[in-house]
Write a structure and sequence with these properties.
Blueprint (H helix, E strand, L loop, with lengths): L1 E2 L4 E4 L2 H11 L8 H24 L10 E3 L8 E7 L5 H8 L10 E7 L8 E7 L4 E4 L10
Parallel strand pairs: 2-7, 4-5
Antiparallel strand pairs: 1-2, 3-4, 5-6, 6-7
């Protein structure tokens, strides 16, 4: 693992990354159906913010299908996105990270990165965006240079 000035950490091993991500998971339990509905609305609100970043960058709806917004939700304050490597950049990931404010400051955006989004065998790595830090696997660190 190495740290840069921009609060970005890269992990050489996937299991190291997963251990760190597990520490930061925010498990949520619901006392009643209304609490679950509120959580679901917050999840969709972040989904919409993330989607707006990709739309602004011209990456949603392009013929190559370079970005897939995962619509499922889990009670762990994490939104997942799958993306083709060639459309990602440090500035784009930083812009996504900037959506983690207000009601979403404890959330995580998980970005699964592929050489070819249509082929799961081309998985290259993962980046988790938090309000105060970015962590990822070193397989994608070479071209996602921050700061």
């Amino acid at each position: 693992m190495r740290r840069t000035e921009q609060q970005v950490r890269w992990f050489a091993q996937l299991d190291e990354f997963e251990r760190e991500a597990e520490v930061r998971v925010a498990e949520v339990s619901f006392d009643n159906p209304e609490a679950e509905r509120i959580y679901e609305r917050n999840d969709w609100s972040l989904h919409s913010k993330i989607e707006a970043v990709f739309v602004e960058a011209g990456l949603i709806g392009i013929p190559s299908s370079a970005v897939h917004m995962v619509e499922d939700w889990w009670p762990n304050k994490t939104k997942s996105v799958e993306a083709a490597f060639h459309v990602l950049s440090a500035p784009l990931l930083t812009r996504l990270q900037s959506t983690l404010h207000g009601e979403h400051h404890q959330w995580c955006i998980n970005v699964q990165i592929y050489a070819d989004l249509s082929d799961s065998a081309t998985w290259m790595g993962v980046v988790n965006l938090y309000v105060d830090e970015i962590i990822g696997t070193s397989g994608v660190s070479g071209v996602l240079t921050f700061g």
